[in-house]
Hints:
With 450 residues, the chain is of the alpha/beta class. It has helices at 14-27, 31-42, 62-76, 111-125, 141-144, 154-167, 171-179, 188-196, 228-237, 247-257, 283-296, 312-329, 357-368, 398-406, 411-416, 420-426, and strands spanning 53-58, 82-89, 99-104, 132-138, 199-205, 275-281, 300-305, 310-311, 335-340, 343-344, 376-381, 393-396, 430-431, 442-448. It has 2 domains: 27-281, Rossmann fold, CATH 3.40.50.10180; 284-448, MOFRL domain (glycerate kinase, domain 1), CATH 3.40.1480.10. The strands form 3 sheets. Strands 3-2-1-4-5-6 form a 6-stranded parallel beta sheet, sandwiched between helices. α3 links the parallel β1 and β2 (82-89). α7 (171-179) packs across α9.
Amino acid sequence: MTQNSSFPSMATSKEAILKNAFSAAVAVADPQVIVPQFLAKIFPVGQEPKGKCLVVGAGKASASMASALEAYAKSHWPQVKLEGVVLTRYGHGSPTSFIKIVEAGHPVPDQAGMDGAKEIFALTNQLEKGDVLIALVSGGGSSLLTLPQEGISIDDMRKTTEALLRSGAPIEEMNVVRKHLSAILGGNLARVAIACGARVEALLISDVTGDSPADIASGPCAADYSTYLDALNILQKYDLDDSVIPGSVMNHLKQGLAGEKPETLKDSDLISAQVANHVIATAYKSLEAAADYVSTQGYEPIVLGDTITGEAQEVGVEQAALARDYMAKGVDSPLALISGGECTVTIPADVKGRGGRCSEYLLSLLAASSDLPRIAALAADTDGIDGSEKNAGAWFDSAVRQSSQTAGLVPEKFLSAHDCYGFFAELDALVETGPTLTNVNDFRIILLDK
């Protein structure tokens, strides 16, 4: 699903406008376009890598970043020998010749991810003074780079991740815990390279609010602001105690709090170090690209921001109220309300659920806007996978709403069962792109007409 940079003429339907806007948001974060641009800035002509060039990385976009880097190096650094390992989610691979691509479990880590992370850690430890480490990092890297600290098993990490997912903890808080259990996250990868005397250049595709390098995939090459105390407080906040969190994890965090384990990388560790983190794509840039597109279709774009978080169902209700406010003021020209950010879905222990945060938000919006029958909307994850199924998200317009009523589908029943996928599947209103090989968080758009 791609969007040409020269926007098409007037779309023929609301569905086309919604999907084209999403395509524009995804296209501006395409690693094949942006990675070469930034490599040219980081390594100007005459300043190409001189020693060994080790390429490592993790995330849903990282394999595509690796293939883009290889293509650039072939043309611009023919004398540089590339090697390395990059981890990505199953189904998100991209062809490479020299950089090994490992597909692994996400969001719950598995053995393939742990084995790949071990290989990355070992290769980084072999760097020497004058060598260059290029880290390709994108959203999803936290769970893929699962290399637990000594004494913590992969099964213990898996149980901890599952408990955090079910608790409804936002991704930022989940990552604080994972950083303090990892030998790679929280700047620990850069720490290894620094000790070897190597230069570190990290290219980051952001899927987090604020776009802080410390938060993108839990910052394997960035100084970390959080502490062991923060991690323990987060577990306590969600009542995650010894009954659900493995003893090895709790013991490690408590030992860290007592000063018996080293903290994550801090700014003081980077004095005199050759470490740079470059954020090459962000959610806000993608929202702006969608705004540029809808303006060609006669809609005035209103970008609400890329930091909207909270329970998906609550955000849906809030944005329905926002749309209602705009309509009450009187819409002189068609409006497009565009937003990003990552919602959460808290699922009760006895509910399985089908779908993800984007389609749950959208179903909530549909249910809360019954008095606005003409609005149209789409919500989708820019990585192409929304939660537990294979769709990127879903969409609706007045015709889809009418079809749901004709079919007797009650949105509230599907919401209570957390089966937003089932609702939109019945109406043929899923957004299905397959893996997009990038990831700049969630995308939401609401179209309001006169």
